[in-house]
Amino acid sequence: MRGTVAAFLAFGLLLLGGCSRGSGPASVPADVASVQQAFVKAVERAVPAVVNIRTVTALPRGSGSSRQRRDRQRIQDYLTDMTDENGGMENSLGSGVIVADDGLIVTNEHVIRDADEIIVRLWNRSEYPARVVGADARTDVALLRIQPSGKLPVAVLGDSGRLKVGEWAIAVGNPFGLESTVTLGVISATGRTDLGVESTDDFIQTDASINPGNSGGPLLNTRGEVVGINTAMVSAGQGIGFAIPINTVMAVEQELARSGSIRRGWLGVGIQALTPELAESFGVKGEKGILVNGVSPHGPAEKGGLRGGDIITSFRGKPVSGLKEFQKQVASASPGSTVSMEILRGGKRARVEVTLAEMEGQAARPPYRKTPVDAWGLAVEGVSPRAVRDLGIEGGVEVSYVDAAGPAWEGGIREGDILLRINREPVGSVETYRRALAGLPKGQMASVLLWREGTRMYVAFRAR
Fold it and tell me: Nearest Cα to 185, choosing from 163, 204, 162, 209?
């Protein structure tokens, strides 16, 4: 790690060589060593809280029983050039940041979008399955939870509102699967809004290298504090990457932790900038605000009396001067709340009150299912005679759910597996499976023969 950070200090060496105090050459190495050590400490402080995230889309999206999903998987098995060793579709690889020692992790929404399985690897290379607490596509923020065996190292959060252009920036992540990679640069810009995305939030721009796999990882300051979550790069250029300000991320994280989704206000208007020329043409020369160029039929704005050609000058008593600012003001208001706006219409001032609706968007994810499980952490169901015949097996029970905290998960059993034998004894039905479990003494090592995607395999684990 120390060598990695040192490799990115060449530019710093040049700067320090020109501004170091004293005229003797001996003063330069001391200054350089001090700066280098500061970077090393910053990285060492942050890296234990950075995780690797890999997701697998094992089956096509859609409803259906686990047996139906398994049948569809047989077709997908032919796509061997696109599958990993487990037969699942590798959907994305990214990074994340631990924000609570009990296993709460922040990442990008696009990293875990449509994932059937999410695996988190910690800095010590231990792995845990993760569930999605909530996700928000508009800000590209997602919140995951794992169940670690002990307390985890937590990232130290900075204040993105105090960032200055020209400050050093350190990006940490897993680009192309290369874990704990560190890149160094500066804050190139703040408040970027012209990126062609739907988000109403501002972005931090940096020239610290951000590559595929860095998404969801932290952007650090020289104290090792997280000031942003890396989210995008410009593929056509070099040294142009973007991060979501950590202040925005944590505001979203708190709401996701509470409800699993973000509710935003919707006004139902089309707006554009009020240029000096437009202001003059509307007879309000010198006024500041935004111009309404359209109103959604039957939407909140129309019901509240807004019309095309109105100029909105204030929202909830605060002056309105820019499009992004106004969009953020509306989105941050609670759906169902009534807001007051000052407008200019025909050169005259007026006040309107509008009851906001909810912005259409990503629905809240269903709560984490709490399926009843047995002593192994499994929920099982019978296998139909037709499935037994089609699969060429002698019977068994199919795993419909695996508790990640149970011994079966640790032993390698996964949803969709069919358990054929326990300790060499056939498992012909759910009843025989339950009797087999009941007859196993606690602490005894159990061997299980299972069928998975056309292959038989043994796993072993200790019963609890």
Answer: 209
How many domains does one find in the chain? 3
Whether residues 389 and 348 share a domain: the answer is no
- Of the candidates 92, 188, 215, 310, the residue annotated as catalytic is 215
The answer to whether 110 is a known catalytic residue is: yes
| Annotated catalytic residue within 136, 140, 207, 417 | 140
Is residue 38 in some structural domain? no
- CA distances in angstroms from 211 to 177, 215, 249, 304, listed in the order given: 10, 8, 20, 47
pTM for the whole structure: 0.62
* Identity of the amino acid at 356: L
Backbone angles phi, psi at 410, to 5 degrees: -60, -30
Instruction: Kindly state whether residues 354 and 438 are assigned to the same domain.
Output: no
Residues 423 and 280 both lie in one domain: no
273 assigned to some structural domain: yes
Q: How far is CA 414 from the centre of its chain?
A: 24
Query: Residue 293: which residues within 8 A CB-CB, separation 6 or more?
Result: 270, 271, 272, 308, 309
**Each residue's pLDDT expressed in tens, for the chain with a length of 464 residues:** 444 444 444 444 444 444 444 444 444 466 778 888 888 998 999 999 999 999 876 544 444 444 444 433 432 333 222 334 444 444 558 999 999 999 999 999 989 988 888 999 998 889 999 999 999 988 899 999 999 988 999 999 999 999 999 999 999 988 776 777 899 999 999 988 755 444 556 899 999 888 878 889 999 999 999 999 998 766 555 678 899 999 999 989 988 988 888 888 999 999 998 999 888 888 899 999 999 998 999 999 999 999 999 999 999 999 997 888 898 889 888 899 999 999 999 889 999 999 999 887 544 444 444 457 888 989 999 998 888 888 888 889 999 888 877 888 888 898 889 999 998 899 989 999 999 998 888 888 888 999 987 888 888 888 77
- Give yes or no: residues 89 and 127 share one domain: yes
CATH number at residue 296: 2.30.42.10
Same domain, 71 and 150: yes
Which residue is catalytic, options 20, 27, 71, 110? 110
79 with 220, same domain: the answer is yes
Same domain membership, residue 317 and residue 168: no
With respect to residue 40, please indicate whether it lies within any of the assigned structural domains. Answer: no
Range of the domain at 190: 51-262
Statement to judge: residues 162 and 258 lie in one domain: yes
Contact 120, 130 (CB under 8 A): yes
CATH number, residue 207? 2.40.10.120
Question: Strand ranges (DSSP E) for 47-88?
Answer: 50-57
Mutual orientation of helices 10-19 and 27-46 as an angle, nearest 10°? 140
Looking at the domain assignment, is residue 41 inside a domain? no
